[in-house]
Amino acid sequence: MTAPPAIAREMPSNWDRATEREYGLLCASGSTEVARWTTVGPRYFSAGIAMLMASTMDADRAAYLALSRALWPGMSKLQEFEAWVRLSPAKPSSFLPRVRALRFVSQNRPPRPPSFSTAAQPAFLGALQAMVERIERSLRSAPAESVRMVVAGGAAQHAHTGLGLSEDVDAVFFRRIMLPADLDVAYPGSDGYPRLLYLDRQFKSGFSLMHPQAFADAPALDFPGLARDFLDVRVLSPLDLAVSKTTRMHEADGVDLRALAATQLITSEAYRERALEALDEYVGDIERVRFEIDAICATLQDAAAPRPR
To answer: How many other C-beta atoms lie within 10 A of the C-beta of residue 148?
Structure first.
């Protein structure tokens, strides 16, 4: 396929805080009207932003894919979206969190039902491996012991249950390292259109309830052909993943917890024991957290209960 001329790949002439906010508010509004999107900037750039939004968990993927194709048809090709990610001044690791922060200005659409699957999608794991390999390559020149990387959050949830698809990777590194800039990975979604996976560079595990042995007990996350000489990749166990959701408990966390229980990866008894042990290290409103632990135990028991056929 002949690549479109360079002039078609037009980006904003000035990407400052005001321009980023304008696009952020547009994305936060949930609008997928072509006429509205053509007024904010170059069609090629806007098509890439629409494709970026189609990669997020809580977006109307079909609507954003249609919008992207209407703005610039070639953006639905994986190679073109990869080129956009390289060229774009809007970096997913900073732009998408800003969109989420601006959601309060939008009129929220009814929540979409969760999508359950029996196993992690190979394309998602392939994108995660590509990200890990880029980090691993950047460490090869460092004459030091292997760096441990523990994957948490939505990526860990999908790896364990196949539930949903996270657009970002939450990870903890057990040594100060200089991460490579290019950790945004475009990959083919199960619907044949591109998705994006990026590393959340602002993730902090200290804001969650966490067992003191959570990272030490994290099982290995093996990727074909990837040695552990430089990067030792692990994933939070299902039990510690559940504990980490205790003090947050957004609607999505409730769905995740039910999935962990329904697939028999955790039990309410094991969760309570681990969470109470973690509570010994917690600084904050202990009584409130105890109440949340009780509520989560009830949720886990309900999710694990047999359903009438």
So the answer is: 17
95 to 36, 56, 100, 282: CA distances (angstroms)? 20, 12, 9, 31
Q: Is 132 exposed, middle or buried (0-12, 13-18, 19+ CB in 10 A)?
A: buried
CA distances from 38 to 21, 45, 110 (A): 16, 10, 26
Distance CA 189, CA 80 (A): 15
Residues 71 and 43 sit within 8 Å (Cβ to Cβ)? yes
Asked if 246 and 253 touch (Cβ cutoff 8 Å), the reply is: no
What type of residue sits at position 266?
A: I
Largest CA distance in the chain: 63
Residue whose entry in the numeric block shows the structure tokens 């004459």: 143
Neighbours of 145 (CB within 10 A): 10
Q: What residues contact residue 256 under an 8 Å CB cut-off, 6+ apart? A: 157, 161, 163, 241, 245
223 by DSSP, 3-state: which? Answer: coil
Instruction: For 185, list phi and psi in degrees, rounded to 5.
Output: -120, 120
Q: Which residue ranges make up each domain of the chain?
A: 9-105, 122-304
Reading phi first (left if > 0) and then psi (alpha if -120 to 50, else beta), residue 221 is in: beta
Is 0.85 surpassed by the pTM of this model?
no
Looking at per-residue confidence, does 171 or 116 come out higher?
Answer: 171
Is pLDDT of 117 > 60? no
